[in-house]
Design brief:
The chain is of the alpha+beta class. It has four helices and five strands. It has a five-stranded antiparallel β-sheet, with helices on one face. The longest helix has 13 residues.
Length: 144
């Protein structure tokens, strides 16, 4: 998706978004890991990569079907279609999209990354070490 470029105030927009959803519970179709990653991208770029399948599902099965019908088949392939091939996780920067595995997306905030879901008994944003992730995807900056 070539139109994805971070805008001038991406850091403020990302922080505002993360502050707003910090205590929101995981919910398929409105606040799940795929839409969380898409919302982080939207905050930084103004473009919603998940626009075509928002509101089309409300369960895990529905999410998988939405990825098959409107995405690239799987969550990993869909994120690749949004941002290109993964980069080395050690090169991830604040705002880049992270994947713990092929089915869980989050956002890098530095040494740690935020993910949405039930983790360590909490049903909200959770923080995990960025180094524990398997994939990182760069949200592009405007070319100078």
């Amino acid at each position: 998706m070539s139109s994805l470029v971070r805008h001038q105030y991406w850091e403020d927009a990302l922080r505002t978004y993360l502050d707003r959803v910090e205590w929101d519970a995981f919910k398929w179709g409105t606040h799940d890991c795929a839409l969380f990653a898409a919302d982080c991208i939207k905050a930084q770029t103004g473009v919603d990569p998940a626009e075509v399948y928002r509101g089309t599902y409300s369960s895990a099965r529905g999410a998988a079907e939405a990825l098959r019908l409107h995405g690239a088949g799987t969550l990993l392939k869909t994120v690749k279609s949004w941002l290109g091939e993964p980069i080395c996780i050690h090169h991830a920067k604040r705002g880049d999209i992270m994947m713990r595995d092929a089915k869980t997306t989050g956002v890098c905030v530095g040494q740690y990354s935020y993910f949405v879901g039930v983790e360590q008994g909490f049903d909200r944003l959770t923080i995990l070490p960025t180094a524990s992730c398997r994939y990182a995807f760069s949200v592009p900056f405007e070319a100078l």
